[in-house]
Specification:
The protein is of the alpha/beta class. The chain is 49% helix and 8% strand.
């Protein structure tokens, strides 16, 4: 059976169709947050088959397969690649009304021109067709980026990384700007002092600083921050349970650091103070170098302890958390604003209960210096489906300026995820189109088309100075 994906997919009125096809469809993509492997881009890697390009590292698909009763052997285990693909294909019909059903068929059609529905019966032909195409230059990692008109792709990088892959990419002039992003989450991991101490020791070696107190820790971190800046980094990103803004004195943080360094477990209050100090100091560094900082807040990670011990983190056992948010977030940003060290900031929440909290909090710290300086970011992770995207767009429209929104990102490890930008653009155009059809917005296509183009591309280009 042929796919339901057609030129007017998700575009349910004439205005939406005009906005998408005339204004949004042909725009390049700026993907300002992803987890692509820069080594794959630097080496212009070619995937051996569709499983390696599409299923490896994709915890969305893994979760669905587990829910469908697929044994772990066919998900992250030692099954052959073709067996894993067949297990996924047999799951796809059961993903009806899950965003995976949309994404799967958008991706097959956008990259491979495959319009058949994926299921157990069509799996073999689709696997062979796509895997064969993946062997050509057009389907190398660089080719895949160009196929989707990706202009900028930002990766996610630990402060200890050498960024050699990014350096190599710049010399290759591949036609796609690939930018590193600073992700210092390991520095906040105080729950395991020995692991943190080992990390800090390696940080000191990379910065050629012997770290034995908090002040030297900051010196080493700042040196790495400067190194990232020298290598083109202009974005930071942190994954947090919630914001940390507990009051502290500098001498307290030195004592807490010494306790950590000696391998002792911190009390809850000590942990909060250490995280509050470090979170603030990292934000000051971001401001000093004019970076955009991003905060992904509210994931409850690695819930299945048995599977975490077996196959590790980022394997599909995370969920939405219900951590307190508003008071500490307000206090954190208020301090930065008062000290005049609040840089451009994007906030992402995972719990939809905090949609209005995030949207209104962003408005508290706009200062007139930059349009949309504080952004409430795109619907994230469990929320980046049609319903979540519509709710984010509607809430932002009600409580902020949708016209200044910097738009969509993939947040993906896969080179086949870029149709998520198309998905977002279609949903946005349909939403605006519905308002026009209902008489709630003027039928001024220049005005509306300009807004759509800005949200899909130009706002991000200006905001990040790409």
């Amino acid at each position: 059976m042929k796919s339901f994906i057609h030129s007017n997919f998700l575009l349910h009125n004439k205005t939406a169709q005009l906005l998408y096809h005339e204004f949004a469809e042909g725009l390049p993509i700026i993907d300002y947050h992803s987890h692509l492997n820069p080594n794959d881009i630097a080496g212009n890697h070619r995937f051996k088959n569709l499983t390696q390009a599409w299923l490896e590292g994709d915890h969305y698909k893994w979760r669905a397969m587990r829910a469908n009763g697929i044994d772990e052997y066919f998900i992250t285990g030692k099954a052959k690649d073709e067996e894993k693909f067949l297990a996924w294909a047999s799951t796809v019909p059961y993903t009806l009304r899950n965003p995976l059903y949309h994404w799967t068929h958008l991706e097959l059609q956008a990259y491979f021109g495959i319009s058949e529905l994926l299921n157990a019966e069509t799996a073999n032909a689709i696997y062979q067709n796509a895997s064969e195409k993946l062997q050509s230059e057009e389907y190398s990692t660089v080719g895949l980026l160009k196929k989707m008109s990706v202009e900028v792709a930002c990766t996610t990088n630990d402060p200890l990384e050498t960024l050699e892959a990014h350096q190599k990419i710049r010399t290759q002039e591949i036609g796609v700007k690939v930018v590193p992003s600073w992700r210092p989450d390991q520095l906040m991991a105080v729950e395991n002092p020995q692991v943190l101490r080992d990390y800090i020791h390696r940080l000191g070696e990379s910065a050629d600083i012997q770290i034995d107190n908090y002040k030297k820790l900051l010196e080493a971190v700042d040196q790495r921050h400067a190194y990232f800046h020298l290598n083109g980094c202009r974005l930071s990103d942190q994954g947090l349970n919630t914001f940390y803004a507990t009051d502290y004195f500098p001498e307290e943080i030195e004592k807490i650091f010494r306790k950590l360094w000696d391998g002792h477990i911190l009390s809850a209050k000590e942990s909060e103070k250490y995280k509050a100090a470090l979170l603030h100091d990292l934000a000051v560094m971001n401001h000093k170098r004019g970076w955009v900082q991003q905060y992904h807040v509210g994931a409850l990670r690695n819930n299945n302890s048995r599977m975490y011990e077996k196959i590790g983190p980022d394997t599909g056992f995370d969920s939405i958390g219900d951590f307190p948010m508003a008071v500490s977030m307000s206090k954190f940003f208020s301090r930065l604003d008062k000290e005049n060290v609040l840089t451009k900031t994007i906030l992402y929440n995972l719990n939809p209960a905090f949609n209005e909290v995030m949207a209104t909090m962003a408005g508290n710290f706009q200062d007139g210096s930059v349009p949309g300086k504080i952004q409430w970011g795109a619907a994230w992770w469990f929320l980046d489906q049609k319903d979540g995207i519509v709710k984010q767009l509607n809430t932002l429209s009600n409580m902020g300026l949708l016209s200044r929104f910097v738009g969509m990102l993939t947040d993906s490890r896969s080179f086949l995820s870029f149709p998520r930008h198309e998905y977002f653009r279609r949903i946005l155009c349909n939403l605006v189109g519905e308002d026009v059809e209902h008489g709630e917005l003027p039928r001024d296509m220049d005005l509306l088309g300009s807004m759509v183009q800005n949200i899909c591309y130009y706002n991000a280009k200006q905001y990040f100075n790409f």
